[in-house]
Amino acid sequence: MKSRLSLKKIGFHAFVLSLSLLFILPLFWMISSSFKTEQQIYSDMTSLRAFFPSIKNFTIKPYTELLGSYNIFRNMLNSLFYSVITVASSLVINSLAGYALAKMKLPFKKIFMIAIVGLIIVPTEATILPMYLIVNRLGLVNTIPGVILPFSASVMNIFLYRQYFLKFPTELIEAGKIDGLSSVQIFFRIVVPVSIPIYITTGVLAFLASWNDFLWPVMVISRERMMPIQVALSAIFADRENIFTNHMMAGLTLATIPVILIYLIFQKYIVQGIATTGSKG
Q1: Residue 213: helix, strand or coil by DSSP?
Q2: Residue 141: what are its φ and ψ, rounded to 5°?
Q3: pTM score, whole prediction
Q4: Angle, to 10 degrees, between the axis of helix 245-275 and the axis of helix 72-103?
Q5: How many Cβ atoms sit within 10 Å of the Cβ of residue 205?
Q6: Distance between CA atoms of residues 154 and 193, nearest Å
């Protein structure tokens, strides 16, 4: 019996490892290619050397040439600014909505929940044109609010907050009411401090979605100085007659570094936050 369980564990871990390699190997290829010459990239393409930097031909020229020709760091700062503001507004708006749906008596609350669950399955591409028409009518094209406001609210994050707050002890809320706290004070003084995991989880999800977003910024931003990194890289390589693979990989590596750091720093909280959302309805 124990040997069967061991074989199952070995098989499971082998499957997970194989699956993880499918996601990790392209990342290795991208990073290693950014430190190679153009010729070296294509000569290593058919071997395992493609996933590792070349010791003999190691070079940082793709980075120096790219950074010397374009102000990539300005675009990265633009992305960072948009992402941080989006996260801040998202945490407030989505958590308040989730808390209201979980703990407050609201008319038509079930209808709201049905609408939210239904909207989760609607792809962003289906709503992007109506959003653009609204933003354009409001005169917010090529403005910071035009980039941030449409994605400050997320039905998925509202749902996650609602599921998390459903399990929040009602006794603590009642104790706050007895102490004379208002609903707003109860939320910010009692609920928020003990709900850090779900805030970190949704904050990371909002940051990554904003940082990696391309479709919406490319629609609402045409000024070069306002472009986030994803749009800037696309514009850089679209305008060049000769596109060098190592330059492209260097740019993508720079754009990926913040994403990797976010995952490494907050991975424990991401798992904890998602695990504690539960399925209570």
Answers
A1: coil
A2: -70, 140
A3: 0.85
A4: 20
A5: 19
A6: 22
